[in-house]
Amino acid sequence: MVNILSLFTLAALWGGSFLFVRIAANPLGPAVLIEVRVAFAALTLLVVSFFLKKSLRFMSNIKHFLILGLFNSALPFLLFAYSAQVLNVSTLAVLNSTAPIWGAVIGAIWTRTRLSKDVIFGLILGMIGVSVLVGWEAINIGDEAIIPIITALIGAFSYGVATNYAKNAPSVEPFNNAHGSMWASVLLVLPLVPFMPVREEVTSDIIAAVFALGAVCTGLAYLLYFRLIKELGASSALTVTFIIPVFGILWGYLFLGETVGVNAIIGTILVVIGTMFVTGFASKFMSKKCV
């Protein structure tokens, strides 16, 4: 029961991250927003490391942290922040949930493994779900929605790269992976800040949104995620991916007044079911039902 509650809490936090990105992306610009986000997250994890008495040894694993930081945070965070200037919270959350699908495809290419029928079926469902979103957003927003949708999908693709890299990466404690990759992201994003300056007056609401995004939805959420991996295993912890779009839609509706269109519901259902087939959760669920 505690683990189920933790899964929903994590999904609520990560679903909320798209809400805060949406609020702050236009006034701060993608680079400043993400630099502050990863800095808050890194500082939060630094404080926690003191209490847990964990030594990071950043320089000993700097290459690993830079690669992980690039593909697991800096690049996808920037791409989603860019997309958030145009796309609504629910669309961002659903596009993000394609990450396990990309991970499976990249893994198959990486290991030269043939895709099973379930995985192919899941990929088709996922692509149809994304097409429903893309088509509707293009009609609703216009041609300016196309590039943000593509950049968000590339962000999800980046998470897939990070997942497969992590499987073959140097053996580093999960907490230190989160902590070290955040400091690496700070270094990676920093050079972009002068080229994408703040655009509007920074209000208290924006400061609060960025603090919540960095400290809570990134730093503390990572701690919760790695605790779930330790207690449930990586596969079970991945079920959070299925719940995130629900909270993304809910937070967008409650706090920004975003309409919940039929396209968002259909797209979400198709992407979630497709992801379940790609990751093998659908077959496991069906086998349990048959026992």
Explain this structure to me?
The protein is mostly helical. It has one domain (2-290). Helices cover 80% and strands 0% of the residues. Helix 2 crosses helix 9 (204-232) and helix 4 packs antiparallel against helix 11. It is globular and about 45 Å long. It is a multi-pass membrane protein. This is Transporter, drug/metabolite exporter family. Keywords: Membrane, Transmembrane, Transmembrane helix. It is found in: Membrane.
Short descriptors:
EmrE-like; AA-Vitamin_Transporters; 13 helices; 291 residues; globular; mainly alpha; transmembrane; Transporter, drug/metabolite exporter family
Radius of gyration: 18 Å
The total count of helices amounts to 13
Whole-number count of domains: 1
Name the structural class: mainly alpha
Quaternary structure of the protein:
single chain
List low-pLDDT spans.
Answer: none
Q: What value does the average pLDDT take?
A: 88
Topology order in helix (H) and strand (E) letters: HHHHHHHHHHHHH
Shape assignment: globular
Query: What's the N-to-C terminus distance?
Result: 23 Å
